[in-house]
Fold Glutamate/aspartate import solute-binding protein.
Amino acid sequence: MKTLQSKSRHGMPVASLALLLCACFALPSQAQDLTGRLASIKARNTIVLGYRESSVPYSYYDNNEQVIGYSHDIAQEIVKELKSALNAPNLQVKMIAVNAQNRIPLIQNGTIDLECGGTTNNKERAQQVDFSNTISVTETRLLTKANSDIHSFKDLNGKTVAVTAGTTSERYLRSYVQQKNANITIIASRDHSASFLTLETGRAAAFFMDADVLASERATSRNPQDYVVTGEPQTHEAIACMLPKGEPGFKAIVDRTIARVETSGQGETLYKTWFMSPIAPKGINLNLPMSDALKAVFQHPNDQPMDD
């Protein structure tokens, strides 16, 4: 027996027309969202990650020059989510080293898609790039030699202070010197290791930077007991991943990944691994307990800066 089918006034069977319409409206939202950087990542089947070479414990080299660290682990979770969201199980990852001076330009000019290092999210930078949900919270302090008699900013008069160039710490220190008319000489070095070397060799009396950076430089030095992190915190800063400005689809994937990591307990495990346990390559332990500010972020993930 021949099955009878009703036809629309255009001659197409009604059932077929209904299926076609359903298919159109049922297109996955991810397919509709593939514009801008997401479309570019999908087309080249590659995401380019910016990383830091010596930002312990966020992003740095192990003894085999493989990138490891707290931020790098979070970046890997984001890559996994992108593979699923883009339906690109074989998505390739290209790694490009960045520093404090070039990381923002490399995001802006499209050289890298995402940077997860130890970058501070602040209002000024947010005019140039977008930031993910906060992944860590730090505060700026001083690293000095234990016998230096430097215990606060008031003790820096007539002294030379090292700071890493291109960081919010450098900007704050220069502003402090100008506003207070302070007698402080500033040496800005290319990276954290160079800044610490300036302190180690006596060319500077203190190194001003994020407390976690200072703790890592102290812990990896030849004689950690010779140095102390001191001084009242000058700023509190939200650390986040950077991505291109005006890419809401891309940012949504990054943010939801970080929110999942932080609210599921995985974030706390990662923090303990990198901040409260011996880490490669030398087995140092930063012994930096999670702050109340970061605990609050993990409970309610957000992308807000902490400009003081």
DSSP finds eleven helices and 13 strands in the chain.
